TrEMBL record:
One GO-annotated biological process of the protein: DNA repair
Name used for this protein in its record: HAD-superfamily hydrolase
Ranges that cross the membrane: none
Record-stated family: Belongs to the HAD-like hydrolase superfamily.
One Pfam family, short name: Hydrolase
Keyword Cytoplasm: no
UniProt keyword annotation of Hydrolase present: yes
Keywords per UniProt: Hydrolase
NCBIfam families from the UniProt entry: HAD-SF-IA-v1
Coiled coil: none
Any one GO molecular-function label of the UniProt entry: phosphoglycolate phosphatase activity
InterPro entries with a match to the protein in the record: HAD-like_hydrolase_sf, HAD-like_sf, HAD-SF_hydro_IA, HAD_sf
SUPFAM superfamilies: HAD-like (SSF56784)
């Protein structure tokens, strides 16, 4: 058994199902409409939906629309669309989230999703008692640029927990990478949507469910 003081979890694809890309595209289009752009180019909508800031920055020249202003609207729309989806049952928890109760470690959440979205999910599903720290990104361009694999939000969580004796649990190569950069162990959760994902870096653990992870960390 490997013991840790803390276990830090990603959010989407780990605790709760992924947000549908079509929902994020609708949010991106609505944000363009907020700024008087009724028929934005599909490519810009896609860049906005995927959070591809460097490609999206062309709106400043193409549409005379400041990136920071558009991004603030995009984030507000994405938060509203996602929280509505959660409330409507369209973004459910994974069944194995019950395994959180089997982990005696201090726990936190660090997500690339917006902080307000993550906080809503944690509160809506009654998970707050499990976590000492919950963090998503700030709804700004700077906040988006601090997303994983940058360590900004994970470092803040570890500082709040007061330990680097931790494992970070995620479902993407970025999650394995951010753990490495932050100097902590990693657990790659290979759910069905990651069946064919190729990792650039070997994680400390690879499991298919949170139940299996809890068993590995407590046996």
């Amino acid at each position: 058994m490997t013991t840790y003081e803390a276990v830090v979890f990603d959010h989407d694809g780990v605790l709760v199902e992924l947000t549908e890309m079509d929902l994020l595209r609708r949010a991106a289009r609505a944000a363009f409409e907020d700024h008087g752009v009724a028929d934005p180019p599909d490519a810009l909508v896609e860049h906005a939906a995927r959070g591809e800031l460097d490609d999206l920055a062309r709106i400043e020249d193409d549409l005379d629309l400041p990136l920071a202003d558009y991004w603030a609207s995009r984030e507000a729309r994405a938060i509203a669309h996602q929280t509505d989806a959660v409330a409507d049952g369209a973004k459910p928890l994974y069944d194995d989230v019950t395994a959180l109760a089997d982990l005696p470690h201090r726990k936190a959440v660090v997500s690339n999703n917006q902080h307000d979205t993550v906080r809503f999910v944690v509160d809506h599903y009654g998970l707050g008692d499990h976590f000492e720290h919950v963090a998503g990104r700030d709804p700004t361009v700077e906040g988006a640029r601090r997303r994983k694999p940058e360590t900004h939000y994970l470092d803040a969580a570890l500082d709040e927990l007061g330990t680097r004796d931790a494992v970070y649990v995620g479902d993407s190569p970025k999650d394995v990478e951010v753990a490495h950069r932050a100097g902590v162990d990693s657990a790659f959760l290979r759910r069905s949507h990651r069946a064919d994902t190729v990792l650039d870096r070997e994680p400390t653990y690879e499991v298919e469910t949170l139940t299996t992870l809890a068993e590995r960390l407590t046996d």
